[in-house]
Amino acid sequence: MGERREAAERRRDAEFEAFAAGAAGRLLHAAILLTGDRGEATELLCAALSRTYADWFRMRGEDPYARTRAELVRRFAHRPWWRRPHGGVLGPLNARERLVIVLRLYEGIAEEQAAAQLDMPVERVRAISLRATAVLRSRPARGGAAPRVREAAS
Hints:
Blueprint: H1 3-35, H2 38-54, H3 64-77, H4 95-106, H5 111-118, H6 122-138
Helix pairs in contact: 1-2, 1-3, 1-4, 2-3, 4-6, 5-6
């Protein structure tokens, strides 16, 4: 392998390490919210980060966080039915509701962006978000009071 290629790969490795060190915690939390299980979330995040690493040279100018988040969402959305989420803070929600809530409320993505990423109409994302938020608000918290969930911005 040539010196230029080796230098480029070392630079890619350093850039990716810096990115992963800064973003992995937030991405892992999003994955845990989606799956409801830390082990499955770690597996999901590793797969998404692996894809980002493999595409690192081709994504110049793209936001690696957004790219990794999109891969995380894609992998979660296309899981087989027997690996659907269970438990966790978002326990009463189904997979689609979890995706919308995590993207809208945890990641703060606009409805239009979430709709594009999930390949749904904006109205559908809005309806799912409102229904899921209502479900979470109606669920009693451990202390007896309903949990506080931010309202999805329209």
